[in-house]
């Protein structure tokens, strides 16, 4: 009887140990997933900041080009009026 109880306890002990290892594996996977998502979020924030900076640079460049275009049109108009 004592031998059978010991065998049952041994079986339960092995099952419990396996379940503990599975739980640890799942916990590690969860931590890795969280870290991965946080890293990706940081990467996306950097990308957004870079794109906003590029947008501002392009807006400034566009405004400058529009100003130059307007000045050139005025110059062409003045030259055309002088020819008449």
Describe the structure.
This protein has 84 residues and is an all-alpha fold. The protein has one domain (1-84). Helix content is 98%, strand content 0%. The chain has one helix and no strands. It has one helix spanning 2-83. It is rod-shaped and about 125 Å long. The model has no long low-confidence stretch (mean pLDDT 94).
Break the fold down into its secondary structure elements and pairings:
Layout: H1 2-83
Structural key phrases:
mainly alpha; 84 residues
How many strand segments?
A: 0
Strand content: under 5%
Question: How many DSSP H or I helices?
Answer: 1
Question: What global shape is seen?
Answer: rod-shaped
Portion of residues within helices: over 70%
Order of helices and strands: H
Class from secondary-structure proportions? mainly alpha
| Model regions low in confidence, pLDDT < 50 over at least 5 residues | none
Could you say how many structural domains there are in total?
1
In whole angstroms, the N-to-C terminal distance is 123 Å
Gyration radius, in Å: 36 Å
Residue-averaged pLDDT: 94
Q: Describe the biggest sheet?
A: none
Quick structural overview:
With 84 residues, this protein is mostly helical. The protein is built from 1 helix and no strands. The termini are far apart.
């Amino acid at each position: 009887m004592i031998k059978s109880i010991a065998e049952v306890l041994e079986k339960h002990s092995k099952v419990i140990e396996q379940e503990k290892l599975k739980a640890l594996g799942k916990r590690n996977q969860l931590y890795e997933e969280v870290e991965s998502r946080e890293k990706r979020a940081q990467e996306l924030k950097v990308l957004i900041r870079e794109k906003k900076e590029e947008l501002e640079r392009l807006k400034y460049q566009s405004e400058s080009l529009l100003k130059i275009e307007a000045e050139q049109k005025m110059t062409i108009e003045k030259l055309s009026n002088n020819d008449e």
